[in-house]
């Protein structure tokens, strides 16, 4: 029995050992192939590992057969033994089994370790010898499966060393531990990568990718998995997967819609941007205003282009204000955004006029009347609205006709006197005591018609769509006198009118009806017809100007062409003038914080079921009295968000109800509320970094949330996770106040990731994304660890301040400095800002490009080298934000030097953190801080050079950086100390020191001006150590309100020489001011006083008020003028030149102006000019010295005006050459002229002659050649400045001038050589008969001319008595024994090739003893009398 039991136990032990061996082998292989991301190809190392594992896990076939037989026998024995075994035997068996099992396990584990170590060494050697980047031998392929099926994605990769493998779904890393249990299985067997997805659902439709990466490179492979449903209609384009694929690509809103502020009569555009182009099914965009669908029209346009949907309104009205919603279709329904558009009133035409009414609508339209309603404006202009004016026009015209003479007080009005079938439009204006508003937007066109017409027509349809119309009038027969109307009642009772309505008589007849209305005061039996001249055509009528407080009854008569009916029954009594009371204001108006620029309002509805037209909201800044309208169109809801407020400012709000009676009183004001964001949970922390690592602990840091929720962060909760485990574990139970924490109790060599969430008073915020995986392995590197908490403050357009914390791990030695690196956002190119390390943990970064976005990181350095970089800072844009303030340096009213900073915004928990030189708060013994509202003040207790340095301030617990700094220099401190001393030791401020004025009569006024003084101020005036008092000769004036001190000395003399001191005191403030009036200063004053005293006496008679002065006129003439006053008829005026009387001057006694004109001034006009006036009261003169420098100045001005009068240079060809000249009004030798040719100065020479006349300046070029071409410049120098004139003598201008010169030269030569009669022939010659006549003349010409004589135009033949003699140039004709026949007209004609000329003489022969009458005789040689006619 014992032996059997022993063998039985032995067999059971062997069986258990074999099972354990199998489990060990299976477990080992499973772990190897499950977790390995390194083995992808079969290598010798892989084979060695497989062989080692086979030794520990595989068995032979014979052993398997024996094991199965033993197992069967063991089971049979065990069944029998169970009946006889006991507890002791079971315990013994368990002990033996456990001992053997532990021994076998230890042996196998030792063997396995050796095999793995050897294989690893071989593999590392191979990898070092042959490295290659990853490459996909077989990539992933796409799969389409049915819902609830499984799918496996496979690919094969080649790489050495084995790469890291990461699977992604739609770009998001797949983590099997985070997914539902068994959802994903990832394997890596000898380079074959597989991803198994079980029980696919519609959410599994996605793009899957695998990333493989080693030190030589990386590779990617992509594949799409499409999951489809089983049933028909849900497949294809209607399938859920197709819809979900579209959902993934659907565009979303890129930014939230923001409130828009516009103004009446101006355009506005409301734009909405999308993240991508809209898909086809999304393009049916809808816009709504207050729930009403909007369409494109002449007033507005809807557009979509380039991922932007826009609503454009061309001319905004207050009716366009409201909630605007954009709705975009999507597969899940629709996406929408809503915002509010504000339309402010247009600028009032009259200051203080109200805003325009709005929402003008027509009601109860009839044939000749209708009812008009509108909404009162929110802005009454500062005074109550007195009423409204209504205007109408025919649609399409601009001829607006008033509908009422007096303002209507309510917002409803009946309009009478309209034409049936006409289309009208209406508009309304509001009026107050200051003026009339702009007109409202015109109403929609409305056409008057008979509303009862449709009721009196019966339509009977029959086949083929035809209809029979039966008019009730045709069935009523012929009615002549109509019946009276019925149901006369008041439809509206207002303060200004009563509107009546009644029913038409039945039957009414075929003929048109009109109506007459009668009224009667209740209690009287008299009826008065109201509308005798204007009968109503509709069963509606309005009565105006009824006596207020009286009760009336009304009745109506109907009339047609046959007559008037009996009156209707009277209406119920109606009391006129009852004022329509406005609604009460809403109650319980509450204001809540919303955002940093908006406040949310809520209020209760009106009680007793009252329904207003809407509500107007008003706000004002605390401390002001002026209310501002928030909305200009009533809102119907009881909650509203007021945007566009100033951050950090305090506001008060109220609400008014709107009804037909106008606006209600203001609701109770809300409690003052500061515009700050509402408190909310913070966003997630970010930027996790590993700062230090030990064997079992890690020090982690992170960055604060970007949104703090409007309050202080109370702490953080931190979670840790080991990727080999499915669950996350809490690190702390209580919030961690700091952002650095050491996590303990970790396992060395394991990878860990962390996440955190922030907590504030609103609750726990969002959970952050997991950090990177950090390996828990003790740091032993000699270099320092990374710095952390890199942040930017004082961000401006080109600079910022960078701060960081020192690394916790210092390495082999202390940190000796830091290197700063920067890069533009999105760039991987990091640039080092400084070559030398920075010793401090802060640095100012300058020379940034405004508007660009940067990131920064920091590296620490010690003696061993430079450590790894810190996590990069948050991106920061180099641009000063709107509202950024700087630190103000100043001195307060008590003389304390302070530095003040006002934050544009802050939260309730925000604090102002002051720092000196960025090393911590200033010394509390030297400074104190004060805070009030958004302003913090740092006061220096005892200012000295110890306080010099850089002061910075930062506001905590705000989302955006609010910080600033300033440098307190020695120069600044000295100025502030001086100002502080002045405040603590006040001096009366001097505005204007001692001044000396000599008055008109020669009195001397000494005065000074200080700041305004109080009525209690005192003055002591000291002269030469003696106090002065006011006397008639020394008057003292002290004007305290103006701070004026003056002393007027009547007869200023030598006695008044000395020192004057004014001693002033006003409360604590004192000062004294001294004037020393001696020596040259005294002599100057007394001389001026004497001169003015004499001048004043002189002015008692005629005197000059304008001294003699000269002026050069535009005609270059010199005009001397002066002006005298206090003239009489007997006052004489005289001009003098060099003490001699000068004639030619003029004097006008009426104006007192004397003038002397010098037309052409020369050197002779240089001298002394004087003008004198005199009478029996006295005399006065004025002198003008025109010598030396004064005369030279006159000539300069004359030359300047003459130079300005110069005409452009002209080119004038002459017979000698070409003349270039300019005309001036007057030329003097004082004007210097210089000629230039091609910028080279010209000198007069044989071919160039420069000259001038009184009115012309010229340059004569004689015998011009091509060398004379070019630009000619004349420089005129007037003694002060030069004036240049230029002309271009080249090209065609030169050719034309040269041609003209040659023509003129030829003409001159011809004129010179032309045959001519020079002299000798008289006009008339008389001779006595029988005398011999000799006429001699001189002729010239080259060649010598031909000579011909004529008598009475006939050629003279020289023979007998006629003879001609030529001697050189003299030609003589001789007539012997003249007789009466020789009387006549004789002429000599000379001619050569250049021309000809004729000389004439008349010969008169008289008889002996005759003397012709009317002739003067002149004896000539030979008895000839030469005579000329008188």
Output the keywords:
single chain; 1430 residues; mainly beta; 7-stranded mixed sheet; 5-stranded mixed sheet; 101 strands; 14% helix; extended; disordered N terminus; disordered C terminus
What's the layout of helices and strands?
Elements lengths: L1 H34 L8 H14 L3 H24 L2 H43 L2 E7 L4 E4 L4 E10 L3 E6 L2 E2 L10 E6 L2 E6 L8 E9 L2 E12 L11 H10 L10 E4 L4 E6 L12 E4 L2 E2 L6 E6 L2 E6 L8 E9 L2 E12 L13 E6 L6 E6 L11 E8 L6 E2 L9 E4 L7 E10 L2 E2 L9 E2 L9 E6 L3 E6 H4 L10 E8 L3 E7 L10 E8 L6 E2 L10 E5 L6 E10 L2 E2 L9 E2 L14 E6 L2 E5 L11 E8 L6 E2 L9 E4 L7 E10 L2 E2 L9 E2 L11 E8 L4 E6 L11 E7 L7 E2 L9 E4 L7 E10 L2 E2 L9 E2 L12 E6 L6 E6 L11 E8 L6 E2 L9 E4 L7 E10 L2 E5 L6 E2 L10 E4 L5 E6 L9 E5 L10 E6 L2 E6 L8 E7 L7 E6 L1 H15 L5 E9 L5 E7 L7 E6 L2 E2 L6 E6 L4 E6 L8 E9 ...
Parallel strand pairs: 2-9, 10-17, 92-99
Antiparallel strand pairs: 1-3, 3-7, 4-5, 4-8, 6-7, 8-9, 11-15, 12-13, 12-16, 14-15, 16-17, 18-19, 19-22, 20-21, 20-23, 23-24, 23-25, 26-27, 28-29, 29-32, 30-31, 30-33, 33-34, 33-35, 36-37, 37-40, 38-39, 38-41, 41-42, 41-43, 44-45, 45-48, 46-47, 46-49, 49-50, 49-51, 52-53, 53-56, 54-55, 54-57, ...
